[in-house]
Amino acid sequence: MDIALFDYNLPPELIAQEPLRERDHSRLLVLERATGAIQHRRFFEIGEFLRAGDLLVLNDTRVFRARLRGRKEPTGGKVEVLLLREVEAGLWEALVKPGRNAKVGSTLSFGEETSPSPSSARRGERGTPLLGKGRLRGVVRMHVEGRTDFGGRLLRVEEAQTFREKLRTIGEVPTPPYIHRPVTDENEYQTVYAREEGSVAAPTAGFHFTTALLERLRAQGVEQAFVTLHVGIDTFRPIQEKEIERHQMHAEFYAVPAATAEAIARTRQRGGRVIAVGTTTVRTLESAGSAEAGGTAGTVVAGSGWTRLFITPGYQFRVVDAMVTNFHLPRSTLLLLVSAFAGRETVLRAYEEAVRHRYRFYSFGDAMLIL
Q1: For site-directed labelling of 250, which of 127, 241, 307, 364 has its Cα 20 to 30 A away?
Q2: Which is more confidently placed, 69 or 132?
Q3: Is the distance from CB of 329 to CB of 238 less than 8 angstroms?
Q4: What does the pLDDT look like over 169-190, one tens digit per residue?
């Protein structure tokens, strides 16, 4: 299937650059798969489309300070690193730009160095930060040990035991390249229920929920459960292949608690719907509900693992009955997933309608409810 079939025109001014002050006041396009009918609502009205006995499943991953800005030693050439995941203790997969400054064998450093006073350095006073040859405490160094099959790097961290703590001061919360303003309050780029740190991008469909809205839905009889999927490189990597079948997904870690698997089973028994909040939740549930994972139609298996599930048109959904999602980039794996769920032509018509009505697109943008 040609990736060009999943293209659409979007005026740049519709790409949202900041979140709404009131999260649940975003717009909500409600799409019925069976008829293609569309309603234009506000997100705080979502309860009108849910009913007692339904189950809302949310991804509780939390974005960590995965972006580092530093330099190559000893030349001082600037580098920017996006950490993806820790392969083993102290060894990270990462994207580095420019790649020419991150050849195998290179050393990259991050953080500010402040030299000790000349007199204390000469005397070697207790507490002097000098480590030898000008190297100072508090600076993070990484050694480029290898390349990955997707063009990234393997970085070995010095003093790995303190690295995550240092990230809190030298790292930045990463945002997608189409957001051109810095995120000064990192809670802007987190869901209100984020708790399991490990993502380099947020599960943005969850941005629209407030604590108060979730409480109202619970009072309405809509049960809620959580999964975890740590969002990785495919959020930042567009599909480059002309034929989508040739695209290879990067592995992402997921976990399904036993309580969530049991909640899904209860929902099936009472005739309720499983409503996934976001494409990451969809991929988690469908991965845990696959035959390979031991699932049967409509159920999932509790546990954790790595998924490369690539959902494209023609995929038969086993677990998810409805989904909440944002508006996604053209030619992206996320748009393909939504098209698999609701039909390519139906989805693209809905996107055209959203453009006509001046909806806000992408991470900080408006939402869809697909029933």
Answers
A1: 364
A2: 69
A3: yes
A4: 899 999 888 999 888 788 999 9
Q: What is the distance between the alpha carbons of residues 82 and 97, in angstroms, rounded to a whole number?
A: 9
**What per-residue confidence (pLDDT) applies to 137?**
45
SS3 338: helix
User: How far apart are alpha carbons 119 and 203 in whole angstroms?
Assistant: 52
Distance CA(273)–CA(223), nearest Å, equals 10
Q: Prior bond to 176 cis, omega within 30?
A: no
- 196-249: per-residue pLDDT in tens? 999 999 999 999 999 999 999 999 999 999 999 999 877 666 788 999 999 989
Give how far Cα 25 sits from Cα of 191, 213, 364, Å.
Answer: 15, 11, 12
How far is it, in rounded angstroms, from Cα 205 to Cα 176? 15
DSSP letter string, 98-155: SGGG--TT-EEEES---PPPHHHHHHT-TT--B-STT-BTT-EEEEEEEE-TTS-EEE
Tokens of 179: 């957001």
* Superfamily the domain 67-170 falls into: QueA-like (2.40.10.240)
* pLDDT tens-digit map of 256-284: 999 999 999 999 999 999 999 999 999 99
Task: Count CB neighbours of 168 within 10 A.
Answer: 9
What is the largest distance, in Å, between two alpha-carbon atoms of the chain?
A: 80
Give the confidence band of 129 by pLDDT, cuts at 50, 70, 90: very low
Q: Are 63 and 190 in contact (CB under 8 A)?
A: yes
The per-type count for the chain, helices as H runs and strands as E runs, is 7, 17
Catalogue the E-assigned strands of the chain. Answer: 27-31, 38-42, 55-59, 61-63, 67-73, 78-88, 91-97, 107-110, 140-147, 153-157, 196-199, 223-229, 252-256, 274-277, 303-307, 322-326, 367-370
Q: Where are the domains of the chain?
A: 3-64+184-370, 67-170
Q: Is the pLDDT of residue 26 over 70?
A: yes
For 3-64+184-370, CATH number out of 3.40.1780.10, 3.40.50.1110, 3.20.20.190, 3.90.420.10 equals 3.40.1780.10
Specify the pLDDT at position 298.
74
Kindly state the tokens that stand for 154.
């393997």
